[in-house]
Amino acid sequence: MNRIPILQMGQTLLVTIQVDMQDQMALALQDDLANKISTSGARGVLIDISALEIVDSFVGRMLASISGISRILDATTVVVGMQPAVAITLVELGLSLEGVRTALNVERGVELLALTRKENAFAR
Predict the structure, then answer these.
(1) Alpha-carbon distance 22 to 25, whole Å?
(2) Which residue positions does the secretion signal occupy (predicted)?
(3) Domain regions of the chain by residue span
(4) Of 13, 47, 56, 61, which one has the greatest count of Cβ atoms within 10 A?
(5) Which residues 6+ apart lie within 8 Å of 108 measured at CB?
(6) Any idea what the Cα angle at residue 18 is, between residues 14 and 21, rounded to 5°?
(7) What is the CATH number of domain 6-123?
């Protein structure tokens, strides 16, 4: 099974999903990200799904699960690049992706992570 690469840029992990995610690949990504956050001390996770044309309910739930795991490990997850058809499908499936932060593109996602870090610094 192919694994999705996780790149580290400072305190942020970058995941670019460029293939249709199968269920096993999504589960592997969840495990890989949890381990990478834990070992690297990353404070942010940016998941770029701009290449995905279809997101089924399982992958949608996995994105929400990844966000929850990241939060517990003291990292913020932002999903970027969602295609309009994917957003419509998720809403039609009744998946609100509660707790998942989203941004239109990578640039805005990086800005959102920086803003979140500042807010968290003030809260501590």
Answers:
(1) 5
(2) none
(3) 6-123
(4) 47
(5) 80
(6) 100
(7) 3.30.750.24
